[in-house]
């Protein structure tokens, strides 16, 4: 049985009160559902304390990004050790918004992934194609390239700490979800690529889908053979909707 994961990426939203309310709300959801899945929330860095102080231990904390450096003169960066102090055991890495807007290249993403696994924080490595890339038939080539550069230097043991998130750029925040079949095709491809790196890890690695996941489409996406959960943006800020998504994972 593969682990199932539902992660709420709050992006740059909320404030201290909203973060506390969401933390309490998600904790209640997890207690109510007694889900077999790992439920994660990824608040902005500065709200991590408020969230950490208000979530139950059954909710896992994730960062939205992390530095590839240990410490030192890196203005604006946050290290893996700092995250660990808050009990934050996961970090999103290589989100398309970081890649497109803040210059996170494949090399930067690979360095961040390496730092996470070295320090025992599980990286949620995001890969995804743009609409233009999909329409020109380059989806699998793009995903393969992003995946290889992020993962190829990891040993089998390190690879086991990784979660991959397939997030088609055209589906993020657009209300336009990949169909379950479109998503499954890419997830199956990702699992195959991971198998080429390390056969044993491929069968246990959670590969989650992100891009306009909501209460209405979560169940059909999560029903696909290689979709092990979701990375949820907008809908993770609405407790009722997030609960439905968590229910859909079972
Ligand atoms: P939306 O669910 O808002 O489309 O965002 C997806 C995402 O980018 C999660 O990381």
Describe the structure.
This protein is of the alpha/beta class and 250 residues long. It has one domain (5-249): TIM Barrel (Alpha-Beta Barrel). Helix content is 45%, strand content 16%. The protein is built from twelve helices and eight strands. Strands 1-2-3-4-5-6-7-8 form an eight-stranded parallel β-barrel, surrounded by six helices. β7, α11 and β8 (229-232) form a beta-alpha-beta unit. α5 crosses α7 and α7 (139-151) packs parallel to α9 (180-197). The two termini are 13 Å apart. The mean pLDDT is 97. 1,3-dihydroxyacetonephosphate binds next to β8.
Labels describing this entry:
single chain, 250 residues, alpha/beta, TIM Barrel, 8-stranded parallel β-barrel, 8 strands, binds 1,3-dihydroxyacetonephosphate
Q: How would you summarize the topology of this molecule?
A:
Elements: E1 5-9, H1 16-33, E2 38-42, H2 48-54, E3 59-63, H3 80-85, E4 88-93, H4 96-101, H5 106-118, E5 122-127, H6 131-135, H7 139-151, H8 156-159, E6 163-166, H9 180-197, H10 199-204, E7 207-210, H11 218-222, E8 229-232, H12 239-249
Parallel strand pairs: 1-2, 1-8, 2-3, 3-4, 4-5, 5-6, 6-7, 7-8
Helix pairs in contact: 1-2, 1-12, 5-7, 7-9
Bound molecules: 1,3-dihydroxyacetonephosphate (13P).
1,3-dihydroxyacetonephosphate binds next to strand 8.
């Amino acid at each position: 049985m593969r682990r199932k994961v539902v992660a709420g990426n709050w992006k740059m939203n909320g404030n201290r009160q909203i973060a506390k309310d969401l933390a309490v709300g998600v904790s209640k959801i997890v207690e109510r559902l007694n889900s077999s899945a790992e439920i994660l929330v990824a608040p902005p860095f500065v709200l991590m304390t408020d969230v950490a102080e208000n979530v139950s231990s059954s909710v896992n904390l994730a960062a939205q990004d992390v530095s590839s450096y240990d410490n030192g003169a890196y203005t604006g960066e946050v290290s893996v050790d700092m995250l660990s102090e808050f009990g934050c055991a996961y970090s999103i890495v290589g989100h398309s918004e970081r890649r497109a807007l803040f210059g996170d290249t494949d090399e930067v993403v690979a360095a961040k992934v390496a730092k996470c696994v070295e320090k025992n924080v599980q990286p949620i490595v995001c890969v995804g194609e743009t609409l233009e890339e999909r329409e020109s038939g380059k989806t699998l080539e793009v995903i393969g390239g992003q995946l290889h550069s992020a993962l190829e230097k990891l040993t089998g043991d390190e690879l086991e700490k990784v979660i991959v998130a397939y997030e088609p750029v055209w589906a993020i925040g657009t209300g336009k979800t990949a169909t379950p079949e479109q998503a499954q095709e890419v997830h199956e491809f990702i699992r195959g690529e991971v198998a080429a790196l390390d056969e044993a890890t491929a069968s246990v690695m959670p590969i989650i889908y992100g891009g306009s996941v909501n209460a209405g489409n979560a169940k059909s996406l999560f029903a696909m053979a290689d979709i092990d959960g979701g990375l949820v943006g907008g809908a993770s800020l609405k407790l009722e909707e997030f609960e439905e998504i968590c229910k859909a994972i079972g």
